[in-house]
Amino acid sequence: MAEKMALAKAINESLRRALDTDPKVVVMGEDVGKLGGVFRVTDGLQKDFGESRVIDTPLAESGIVGTAIGLALRGYRPVVEIQFDGFVFPAYDQIVTQLAKMHARALGKVKMPVVVRIPYGGGIGAVEHHSESPEALFAHVAGLKIVSPSNASDAYWMMQQAVQSDDPVIFFEPKRRYWDKGEVDTEAIPGPLHKARVVREGTDLTLAAYGPMVKLCQEVADAAAEEGRSLEVLDLRSVSPIDFDAIQASVEKTRRLVVVHEAPVFFGSGAEIAARITERCFYHLEAPVLRVGGYHAPYPPARLEESYLPDLDRVLDAVDRSLAY
């Protein structure tokens, strides 16, 4: 039966199920135990599963991921939390030179079933290192799966699939959506982890997004509908791999594409999507693929973040420009 819950609660319930189902699953991170995480995503897990399964670690991100790699080599399935997006970089070396490479280095004989949870993105009034979107930095590295849910149901099921994966998964959690509620059917049969989903049908233009920007794109589609424009909203769900077939199918129908993400447009994931879709859909496109995202600048102070992040007007402006061709 479906239950309405917040996205953060859905992740909590998913981790609870994983811990209960598989004794080899362990949860690790700074303050994930007694405190339940700064966003309370892991609240109550240590109380119910003990300090040997839900482990409060030192403030040492490189050590957290390095320990998880060692545990994975011994058959465990660690789920590690990086407290904020900008704190991941002390662990970047471990992730890209060890975690991502171990399977290939061992000629397929070694599995790396590690999930790295990263609350990411802005919209909560925080400062730099607490509001950034570094997904493209990881998507550039072969050997890592990169996913980001946009709603509670996906948060629940994508976490289940990430924990069960034998490959390392970077699980980007849109912190501004932690408190958004949605229906979660814990007995459903989930679709493929890296499959995009059309969340709103349309005919005039495709909006492609993932994580925190999917809700914004739905609001843009609502606003455009008042002007008689029909926009299709595609939730990509996965940044690596990207479901280019789903994007292509949508673009062949609408003939226009705007990609939206919080990360800076410069060298962002939207650039790869724009290049691939231009190659695949050259004779279908009636306008160039446009991108809307953050600026190529350090994340600003909290009072300026609304000017930095994509909003309704900026996305609508891109829609207008595309439809004007």
Automatic annotation (TrEMBL):
GO molecular function terms noted in the UniProt entry: branched-chain 2-oxo acid dehydrogenase activity; magnesium ion binding
Top EC class of this enzyme: oxidoreductase
The protein's Enzyme Commission number: 1.2.4.4
Alphabetic keyword roster: Oxidoreductase
SMART domains for this protein: Transket_pyr
Signal peptide feature range: none
Gene Ontology biological process terms in this record: branched-chain amino acid catabolic process; response to nutrient
Cofactor: thiamine diphosphate
Keyword Oxidoreductase found: yes
Domain Transketolase-like pyrimidine-binding residues, every copy: 5-180
Oxidoreductase as UniProt keyword: yes
InterPro entries given in the database record: THDP-binding (IPR029061), Transketo_C/PFOR_II (IPR009014), Transketolase-like_Pyr-bd (IPR005475), Transketolase_C (IPR033248)
The protein's name in its UniProt record: 3-methyl-2-oxobutanoate dehydrogenase (2-methylpropanoyl-transferring)
